[in-house]
Design brief:
Layout: E1 9-13, E2 18-22, E3 27-31, H1 33-43, H2 48-58, H3 63-79
Antiparallel strand pairs: 1-2, 2-3
Helix pairs in contact: 1-2, 2-3
């Protein structure tokens, strides 16, 4: 499922990864390059499998680890209320 941020969440690419700003409370999230790639893939309409594929292609990790990383990040973003 594609990731959608609430309308009060802004994203910005940085030299290190991606920054998210929750405009409701002013909280920043700094995502490392791995998390940034996951978010970019999901925001572009890819599903979690596509995000795992992107991690495998970019970073030398196995599928199990990639799928765990995607699931963990998506879970945290949804639990925080940043994403649906």
């Amino acid at each position: 499922m594609a990731l959608r941020f609430g309308d009060k969440v802004s994203t910005a690419a940085t030299d290190y990864g991606t920054v998210l700003l929750d405009e409701r409370n002013g909280q920043y999230w700094e995502l490392n390059p791995t998390a940034g790639l996951i978010v970019t893939t999901l925001l572009a309409g890819g599903d979690e499998a596509a995000a795992a594929d992107a991690l495998i292609a970019e970073f030398d990790i196995d599928r199990t680890r990639a799928e765990q990383d995607v699931a963990t990040l998506v879970g945290e973003l949804r639990a925080s209320g940043l994403a649906a």
